[in-house]
Amino acid sequence: MPVRSVFIVLAVLVGVASAWLPAGSQEAGKVYRVGFLTNGTPGLYAPLLERFKLGLRELGYVEGQNIIVDYRFGEGSNERTEELAAELVRSNVDIIVAAAYGAFAAKKATTSIPIVFLSITDPIRFGFVSSLARPGGNMTGLTYTGIELNPKRLEMLREALPRATRFAALGTSKHSLWAHIVEELQAAARTARIQLQIVDAGASSPADIDAAFETISKGRPQGLLVLQYHQFVFEVKRIVDLAARYRIPTIYELPYFPQAGGLMSYAGDSRHQWRRAAIYVDKILKGANPAELPVEQPTKYELVINKKAAHALGLTIPPSLLGRADRVIE
User: Fold this and answer.
1) Cα→Cα distances 159→8, 54, 197, 271, Å
2) Which sign, positive or negative, has the C-alpha torsion 207, 78, 96, 178?
3) How many other CB atoms are there within 10 angstroms of residue 133's CB atom?
4) Which CATH architecture has domain 27-144+270-299?
5) Hey, which residues does 36 pair with through a beta bridge?
């Protein structure tokens, strides 16, 4: 076969092969760089990161082969988290996955690198996106339902303690939505016809939390609701131990608390969301525009109950509530 004919045949074969490649498929031999950023600690996020990694593997990504993830943990310092965000931007990662305050730090650091956020309650209020349907910028991701579930948590706590009439809530006025949280809880308490003491933990330092529990104990509440605040995550053991010391049945937002010995928690299923975050990463790496990727809200919720903690409190969880639990810690 003449050389010219060989080239023609090869060109046709290449064209046919190209036609069978799916649009937006990964580039052969391309190694993507993903930056992961949070103000938390490695130990705190390890279980959730395992779900994220699982999601990546299911989509064909293998760390060290076709994807590299640079992990950055602020270890409780927002200032350090902002420095780490700047480092990721300078290293020119392809995308940043940011959780909690990491999303705020990433937003400050770049308006061009795509950002997938997690553990954010209200991305519109915080200026991350223009709308949930059409984010409009370089940020998109998955929200979780936090403060909106406080009345539901109060309802569940009362179901666990059907004869109780005095409750307390522990939070902090440092929360940007504090006034809204207080108003919503007070309305829920009036509807349920219960007494509710709301205690401000201030800056949420260990000393502030200790003092807040002393104040709570003076009110002799029969149950306690620990409200959402990112600094509380770094004091999980202290808060759980104080609730046990004062023998107050407590419901929390995040499953870290019952896993550490707390009574119960109720929130969006974060493990499911972190697995789904890999889908956003995959779409963006394949060319999708984050400005056009709708923000996903929770579709699954998780009730976690620690029966051992209940037993230590001399509390019997009603079968109606126990039967609805997604996870029971024996």
Assistant:
1) 76, 36, 18, 26
2) positive
3) 10
4) 3-Layer(aba) Sandwich (3.40)
5) 71, 97
The pTM score is: 0.77
Confirm or reject CATH 3.40.50.2300 for domain 147-252, answering yes or no: yes
Q: How many residues does this entry show for the chain?
A: 330
Cα–Cα distance, 23 to 27 (Å, whole number): 11
As annotated, the residues of the chain forming the CATH 3.40.50.2300 domain(s) are 27-144+270-299, 147-252
Alpha helices (H) along the chain:
3-20, 42-58, 78-90, 101-109, 150-160, 178-192, 206-218, 236-245, 256-259, 270-285, 307-312, 319-322
Which pair of structure tokens corresponds to residue 31?
């190694």
Q: Percent of the chain, pLDDT > 90?
A: 69
Summarised one tens digit per residue, pLDDT across range 157-181 is 999 999 999 999 999 998 877 888 8
Residues ≥6 apart with Cβ < 8 Å to 170 = 199, 201, 212, 213, 216, 224, 225, 226, 227, 239
pLDDT, tens digit (0-9, with 9 covering 90-100), for 133-145: 999 999 999 997 6
